[in-house]
Amino acid sequence: MNILHVTFDMRIGGTEMVIKNLIEGNTDPSKHMSIFCIESPLGPWGEQLKKKGVPISTKARTPGFDVSIITAIRKHIKHHKIDVVHCHQYTPWVYGTMAALFTSAKVVFTEHGRFYPDSTTWKRKLVNPLLSRCTHAVTAISDATKQAVAKFEHIPINKIQTIYNGIKPLSAVTTKTTALRTELTLPPEANVIGTVARLDPIKNHVMLLRAFSIICERIPQTYLVIVGDGEMRQTLELLTEELNIGNFVRFVGYKTNPTDYINLFDVFVLSSLSEGTSMTLLEAMSLSKPCVVTDAGGNPEIVKHKVSGMVVENDNADAFANAIVALLEDPQQQAIMATQARQIFDEKFDVKCMNAAYRELYENISAS
C-alpha cells in the first residue's frame, strides 16, 4: 500500500509527531508513505524526513479556498499511485477528500484535537455529511474527541473509531537530571512538580499557578518548573510575583527535547481546559511519573484516577492543589502510581500500539 499523509506542515507538534511516528514505523521510511503539506515552511521534522528519502510535496495555500491545492494533491496521488489518503485535521481533510474524488484512493480523516470552547458553523453542517460519504474511515485521538466530532462536525458516531496517539518511550540520563537540578537551583530535598506545554490560555497555567500558591503554603519546600513558551509568558510571570511565589517557580522556555526536565519532576501536572491526547502526558508516563490532570477531553482516558495519578475537576485550583499535596505527602503512593503509569503506557500508548491500529485500518479499507 502507498499512503499519503495530508497535513498543514511538519513543524514540531502533536499532529506532526503522529505522522512522523507512522512513517518511521515502516521498515524503510522512504517507501510506501509520503506527505503533502498545504502550508509552508515545511518545518524541521519535514526536513528530517526529507533527508531520509520520504517524498514530501509542499504547496502554500492562498487565502480563501485554494482550488490549486486540490489539483496539486491529485497530481501527487496519481504520480505516487496512492492507495490511502490520510488527512490530518479538518482543512487538510477538505482538500484531501476532494483531491481523491474519481481516483481509486481511499480517504481517512483523523481529528487530532478541538478548540475550546467547541463550536460549529452552518457551512460545516451542510458540507461535512457530504465529505463523510466520500471518506472511508474517520478516527479521533480520544473518546472525548470522538464525541465532539460527532456533535460538532455532524459525522455519524458509528463511523468514528478512537485510535490513541502513541509515542516512543523516553529514556533519561540520571546524571543529566542531577546537573539540571543544580542549574535550576533546586535544593536536593525539595519537591518538584512540573509541566510541559505551550504558554497558551487553553493550557490554563493561571489555574496552575493559583493552585501552586496553595501548595506553597502547605508544603513550603516545593518548586514548580514550567517548560514551554508562548503568548502568556509575561502574564504568568507577573502573576507569580502577585501571588508571591516567584522564588519557587522556574520558567525555562521551550525545549526541543524536554526529557531531562520531565525526569526531574516528582509529579507531572497538566492543567489544560481542553485536551485530545497530550503527547507530553504520554512522555511523562513513559518515564514512570505519577500525573495530576484536569478532567478535560482525553485526560481521564489516559490517567486512571487513583491508579496512575489523579484526575480532578476542570479549572478548580483548590482541587488541583489538594491532589498534588496528597501525592507529595505520600511517597509510597507516588511510587505505586509511577509503576502503574509506565505499565499503562506500555499497554496502550507505546508507538507500536498506534502504528498497528493504523496499519489494520489501512488494510481494512483497502480490502473493502
From TrEMBL:
Chain ranges of the Glycosyltransferase subfamily 4-like N-terminal domain: 12-167
GO molecular function: glycosyltransferase activity
Residue stretches in coiled coil: none
Organism superkingdom: Bacteria
SUPFAM superfamilies: UDP-Glycosyltransferase/glycogen phosphorylase (SSF53756)
UniProt domain Glycosyl transferase family: residue ranges: 180-343
Keyword presence, Transferase: yes
Keywords associated with the record: Transferase
Gene3D superfamilies the record matches: Glycogen Phosphorylase B
Classification via InterPro entries: Glyco_trans_1, Glyco_trans_4-like_N, Glycosyltransferase_grp1
Entry-linked PANTHER family: SLL1723 PROTEIN, SULFOQUINOVOSYL TRANSFERASE SQD2
Name of the protein: Glycosyltransferase
